[in-house]
């Protein structure tokens, strides 16, 4: 039996921009093993959120396929918990009800729901705000609520798009340690997108560095550091060496040939032609914000 958890098999995401096809991601292949923790970094617009949305089942690839547990992804599923780049809370539900949402869908008993919800609220420091509506929360608090909701449903896969971006430095470090602790205790597969190179190295087994136009994998860097990630590690020479390697491969990439151009077109000999369709509105902003079950 395969230990591959998530497989991106030559996936392409093509959008129509100004009437022309634009490859947000092209022919990208990546296999994430069961219980692996990978982080994804790369310049803005290189397709990080696009590949995460494909794994989440919110965006159907124009070419190739994504498989989770050997089955092609056709839509969202409860085994995949998603934390979006933008806060995706139900505005009409309180913090507690947002966190409880997935548990209700799973028909978990009220007593058990309460126990899980209280633990997650405690973990994310939201207990005092349990009865508040999202509109009254700060950005960081909203994000912590989205994290609590994803963790509460206990998915085997966590797809996290810059989940800690809106947090203050101290909370961020705390949430990083907490996530690693949860990952160690109850093994799960994590795909974590970030712009923070230190965060990418601190958390991961492997760092996937992407490049833009078209979105693709530029390099994969193994993080050969002890499994136990302590705060001291952040200043060690081993950590710094890997951090510098990731930094250089993200920020010293060759500029794309048509940098600044609004869209990039198929070269005449584009092999992606066969079965390569254009996504028109399959991934609307509304769907992007929809947290799903
Ligand atoms: N629905 C869409 N229609 C047209 N173009 C799109 C659509 N969604 C994404 N794109 C384009 O695809 C490219 C990749 O977008 P994506 O959101 O995946 O980037 P990203 O790597 O997550 O960037 P960031 O780091 O800024 O979040 C961008 O050029 C973006 O403009
Ligand atoms: Mg993004």
Radius of gyration: 19 Å
**Please, how many domains?**
1
The CATH homologous superfamily is termed P-loop containing nucleotide triphosphate hydrolases
CATH class call = Alpha Beta
Percent of residues in helical segments? 25-40%
**Span between termini:** 28 Å
Structural class by helix and strand composition: alpha/beta
Q: What small-molecule ligands were found?
A: adenosine-5'-triphosphate, magnesium ion
What order do the SSEs take from the amino end to the carboxyl end, as H and E? EEEHEEEHHHEHEHEEHH
- In what order do the strands lie side by side in the largest sheet? 6-7-8-3-9-10
The multimeric state of the shown protein is single chain
State mean pLDDT (0 to 100 scale).
86
> Biggest β-sheet: count, sense, barrel?
6 strands, mixed
| Unreliable spans | 259-293
**Percentage of residues in DSSP E strands:** 15-25%
Helix run count: 8
CATH topology: Rossmann fold
The backbone outline, from C-alpha atoms, is globular
Fold and architecture overview:
The structure is a single chain. This protein is of the alpha/beta class. It has one domain (4-79, 155-289): 3-Layer(aba) Sandwich (Rossmann fold), CATH 3.40.50. Helix content is 31%, strand content 23%. It is built from eight helices and ten strands. It has a six-stranded mixed beta sheet, with helices on both faces. Helix 5 links the parallel strand 7 (157-161) and strand 8. Helix 2 (95-105) runs parallel beside helix 4. The protein is globular and about 50 Å long. Magnesium ion is lined by residues 48-49, 85, 161. Residues 15, 17, 22, 24, 42, 44-50, 85, 215, 283 line the site of adenosine-5'-triphosphate.
């Amino acid at each position: 039996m395969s230990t591959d958890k998530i497989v991106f098999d030559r996936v392409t995401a093509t959008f129509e921009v100004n009437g022309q096809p634009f490859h947000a991601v092209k022919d990208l292949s990546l296999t994430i093993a069961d219980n692996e923790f990978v982080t994804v970094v790369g310049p803005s617009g290189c397709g990080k959120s696009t590949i995460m949305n494909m794994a989440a089942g919110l965006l159907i690839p124009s070419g190739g396929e994504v498989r989770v547990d050997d089955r092609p992804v056709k839509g969202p599923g409860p085994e995949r918990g998603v934390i979006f780049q933008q806060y995706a809370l139900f505005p009409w539900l309180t913090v507690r009800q947002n966190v409880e949402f997935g548990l209700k869908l799973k028909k978990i008993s009220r007593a058990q729901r309460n126990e899980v919800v209280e633990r997650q609220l405690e973990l994310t420091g939201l207990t005092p705000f349990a009865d508040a509506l999202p509109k009254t929360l700060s950005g960081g608090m909203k994000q912590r609520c989205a994290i609590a909701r994803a963790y509460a449903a206990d998915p085997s896969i966590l797809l996290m798009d810059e989940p800690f971006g809106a947090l203050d430095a101290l909370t961020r470090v705390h949430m990083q340690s907490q996530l690693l602790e949860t990952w160690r205790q109850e093994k799960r597969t994590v795909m974590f997108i970030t712009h923070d190179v230190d965060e990418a190295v601190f958390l991961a087994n492997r760092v996937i560095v992407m490049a833009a136009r078209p979105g693709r994998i530029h390099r994969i860097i193994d993080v050969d550091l002890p499994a136990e990630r302590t705060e001291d590690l952040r200043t060690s020479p081993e950590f710094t060496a890997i951090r510098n390697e990731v930094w250089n491969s993200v920020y010293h990439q060759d500029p794309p040939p048509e940098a600044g151009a609004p869209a990039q077109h198929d070269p005449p000999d584009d092999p992606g032609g066969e079965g390569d369709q254009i996504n028109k509105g399959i991934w609307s902003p509304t769907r992007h914000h929809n947290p799903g079950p």
